[in-house]
Amino acid sequence: MKLLRLLSIGLVSVALVAPPMAAAHAQVPPPKALVITAHNMTAEAAGEQDTRAVARPGDVIRYTLVFTNVTAGPVKNIQFVDPIPKGMIYVPGSAAADHPARIEYSIDGGKSYSSQPTIQVVEGGRKVEQPAPRQRYTHVRWTVLGSLAPQARVMAEFRTQVSEAPGDAK
User: 46 — alpha (psi -120 to 50), left (phi > 0) or beta?
Assistant: First the structure.
């Protein structure tokens, strides 16, 4: 299953380059600015050893995004935007970060975001707003509050549940 990820760093995206390294550290490669992983928590809990196993409907997948400030100065306006892969359904309440962050969700393909997306439905002939069902969530967005010092990192994560076998996802 191919996963598409996007990281936008507000106004400082041009500044994201590795800082000069001291000669003593020349052999150590600089950290990657963004590392994304996905773990099948259902398989892990069951003790499955084959990490190449295909996720099955019902499995819970945890996505982790770790951003490291590889610049020589503090970075502001850090924003992670992660689409929920096709065939997956967002697990409510699972989005978190290890730094203060505003977490928002999109139900329209990433065009707009809200901390609590709603939809309009007709009940008794009246239009009413109600929380969007988790099947409608298309993206998760974290906006890190404040700045991140040089070499500091921030981790964001969320979980999904497999709704369709990988070959069946549309």
Answer: alpha
Mean pLDDT on 129-152: 95
| Per-state percent for the chain, helix, strand, coil, to nearest 5 | 10, 40, 50
Stated pTM of the model: 0.75
In the numeric block, which tokens belong to residue 112?
């707009």
| 165: region left, alpha or beta (phi > 0 left; psi from -120 to 50 alpha) | beta
Residue of 102, 81, 77 lying closest to 16 (CA atoms): 77
- For the chain, what are the domain ranges? 6-168
Q: How far apart, in whole angstroms, are the C-alpha atoms of residue 62 and residue 162?
A: 11
Q: What is the CATH number of domain 6-168?
A: 2.60.40
Question: For 82, how many CA atoms within 13 A lie in the half-sphere containing its CB?
Answer: 29
Q: What digits encode the pLDDT tens for the residues 61-70?
A: 999 999 999 9
Per-position b or e across 121-157, b if 16+ CB within 10 A of its CB: eeeeeeeeeeebebeebbbbbbbbeeebeeeebbbbb
